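Data card: per-record layout.
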Amino acid sequence: MRVLVTGATGYVGGRLVPRLLAEGHEVRTTTSNPDREGPWWSDRVETVTMDVKDPQQVADAVDGVEAVYYLIHGMGGGSDFAEQDRRAARNVADAVTRHGTPRVVYLSGIVPQADSSDLSEHIRSRLEVEEILASTPATVLTLRAAVLLGSGSTSFEIIRQVSERLPVETVPTWMRSDVQPVAVVDAVEALLGALTAQTGTRSYDIGGPERLPYADLLRRYAELAGLDRPQVEVPLLPTDLVGTLVGALTDVPTPTVEALVESLHHDMVCGEEDFRRDLLPAGHELVGLDEAIRRSLAEQSLAGREDPAQADPMGPMPQDPSWASGGEDRPLLAKAVDVVNDTVDRLSRD
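The structure for this 350-residue chain is written out next.
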């Protein structure tokens, strides 16, 4: 099958493309900067220039493919991020309709069981993107995931960097919600299965075999990483302040951190698990939580560093961002100064 993967250089896309190639699919990817060096697999795919905000470039990229993977996420800050997400989704939806593309697969986030007014702006925006794509004649499958486990995943890097950099983990009392982490290799298998699943337009919640409070997830990580990290619950910590503190302490982009922290007011767990039946190969066993963390922490073998095709996708890969694998090697004191400065700036604006 001829497949277009948007966001192919991102965390999930960079791991999905090799799986598609291994299954014999023809893959087209997009780039907004053709002068940038391509990923390690780029010589095996067709790459076209596409700015998702440019309707003609989007239409040209979609032309001739049988399926589109929509892996674009507007996790940035700013008051117009929802409008940018809306515009991008409409351009893709228009192109899919124009060319009669049979299938679209969209990777989104878990939608909590809550009133729409209680959802964060980012979750509401992802729901809107889902609705825009689903309005096309194509079969549109939306996969909703919560915490993705794997070296380089924003969710995992926040857990890793907070655990490694704080001698005591300060947990807000409102952060008692449950999460259902899923290993990135299982998410990729579900994405692959969505390409040929015999179903109509619908969403699937995807998660791993275990759900637990977020504070317990931090505790499990610390134990498996060999860290002694006592936890202290702190009441009355505002969400935006927590996002600022964690964003300053870690090397993950702050707007992404703030969006993820905001989502933790709700249980981020599967409402149904039909994906196991419909999207995964028969007999597929989901990676357990402890195994997923261990594999994410394991250093790649020499063979894996020389040939990424032989490496475990749960570990670091060449196209991962600079803040992956534990982040930048800056002294904790320097990061603490950044935290104080950012906190003062936030308080002065409030």
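Known properties of this structure: The longest strand covers residues 103-109. Confidence is low (pLDDT under 50) at residues 346-350.

See the next section for split statistics.
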